[in-house]
Amino acid sequence: MKKLVLLIAFALIATVPLAQAAPSNSDSIARPVKVKLALVYLEDFSASGQPTGPPGSYWYFVNSILPSQDTWQEFIPGDGYARINVDSLTSNDTDTTNPYQLLGWGGVGVGHRIAVRMKGAVVPGLTGFIFTYQEESSTFDEIDIELVADDTATAPSGHATLPPSGWTDARFNSYGNSSLSTYLPETSIKQPLVNADGVPVSHIDDAFHVYVIDWYANHIDFWVDSVKQATITSPIPDSVSEVLIGFRDLSWAGAFNWSGTKTMTIDWMQIERLPTSGSAPPPPSGS
Ligand SMILES: [Ca+2]
Ligand SMILES: [Ca+2]
Fold it and tell me: For an engineered disulfide with 17, which of 3, 54, 136, 240 has Cβ 3.0 to 4.6 Å away?
């Protein structure tokens, strides 16, 4: 998911970092290990058009996969859901390498839980994602949850992709002050999505799921439907970053085996403050 070079760089510079790491807690009284998280921002898409977000933040969209989705009303009609539409036709793509269809929001820093409830994120031929991104002159920060029906670059490929026996592949990645030319340092964990029993599951199921990145200063936890999928301890990004939700056409996402259009439906995006000691409770399930 590298090199999202839009007008993002200038937008970041012009933006006051609105969500920094939580201040340390001077309370010396012993606390439970699990703590309730403080809400920083909830976008529930109940108002039509471009969201405003907290002061100093901004929203934008990219539509280089399905250029005809070109108004805020089409992305956010005001019924409580954002929609990201894609088609299987590549001839109309306005980015000929790896086009995107996405909503972007800036931004959030270390010390936060980033959670999204959505359905329709797994579409053969495309990578569905939620990721953070920040770029400087020669380096970038990034944390990824990438979802594909069948990761063709990761064995086994050609597996079943539909419920009940098929599953969805995922990549959980992090980059911290990584080189824009070598993409290093990088950690990438490639594995199926699993349920609470560790059984691979398919998200081509027309059901809502909650995808979560817990971005601590010393590690990152990745959750899907209250189940911790992976933890990365290095590299850990340290700069305020954008949050991007949508699709990208990447080589390892396999072939389009469908025609027409498909839609990712986003119920909400939520930012919460992580505890500075102890661990966060599991996020909610998708249902
Ligand atoms: Ca297209
Ligand atoms: Ca909603």
Answer: 240
Q: 100 C-alpha to center of ligand 1: Å?
A: 9
For residue 156, whether the previous peptide bond is cis, meaning omega lies within 30 degrees of 0, is yes
Give residue 70 CA to ligand 1 midpoint distance, Å: 13
Distance in Å, CA 70 to ligand 2 centroid: 21
Q: What is the pLDDT of residue 6?
A: 42
Kindly report the CATH number assigned to the domain that includes residue 238: 2.60.120.200
CA of residue 44 to ligand 2 center, whole Å: 4
Q: What's the whole-number mean pLDDT along residues 117-146?
A: 98
> Is residue 96 one of the residues assigned to a domain?
yes
Domain that holds residue 218: 46-273
pTM of the full predicted structure? 0.89
Mean of the per-residue pLDDT values of the chain? 91
For residue 20, what pLDDT is reported?
44
278: tokens are 């102890």
d(CA 12, CA 136): 10
Pseudo-torsion of CA 164, 265, 168, 1, nearest 10°? Answer: 180
- The CA 89 to ligand 1 mean position distance, Å, reads 4
Ligand 2 centroid to residue 27 C-alpha, Å: 36
Among residues 209, 25, 16, the alpha carbon closest in space to that of 111 is found at 25
Q: Is residue 111 part of a domain?
A: yes
Taking the centre of ligand 2 as the mean of its atom positions, its distance from the CA of residue 231, in whole angstroms, is: 28
pLDDT, tens only, 85-129: 999 999 999 999 999 999 999 999 999 999 999 999 999 999 999
